[in-house]
Amino acid sequence: MKRLNMIKISIIFLITLGMSLFLIASVALATDSSSHWRPTFDLVMRWLNFGILVFLLIKFGKNPLLSLLRKRKEELHKKIKQIEEQRKEAAAKVEEIQIELDQSAERLAEIKQRIIKQGEDKKRKIIQDAQQESKILLQEAKRRIDTQVLIVKKKFQAEMIEEAMKIVFKKLPEQITEEDNQNFLAQYLARVL
Predict the structure, then answer these.
(1) Number of domains observed in the structure of the chain
(2) Over the chain, what is the mean pLDDT?
């Protein structure tokens, strides 16, 4: 089919070229002076050479040129397909990375919440431990104070007793009689026996 079209185009081109030559040649022959026909002849020859060149290019260069263009088209098609596949792979990777980012953001939020909860639990435990320790320290301080007060009381009592004894030993010999001594001795013996 293509070959038939090429033959038709070539025939139409040759007929047009021949008619052009005939018309131009009749104009050139109709003139008497030889100086006017030379530029027309040169123009016709240029067109004829151009037509022959186009015919030869179409006849012999069409198939190699078409095969070159087909190969180039196939190469470009392969490159475009390859680039499209790379683009799809890159888009899939970007989507995977986006999903991972979303998941990591969720995990980060969960970890953050867990850390905050652990921190609050630890804070509560520290406060409870501090309160318990302060209670223990207060009890220990109270016990020490009570012990110190008891020691001071006993010391004070001992000092009071000692002072009383001193006073008694000073005044007692003057006031105790022989009769009192006999009563003390009797009471002592009654308790012992």
Answers:
(1) 1
(2) 81
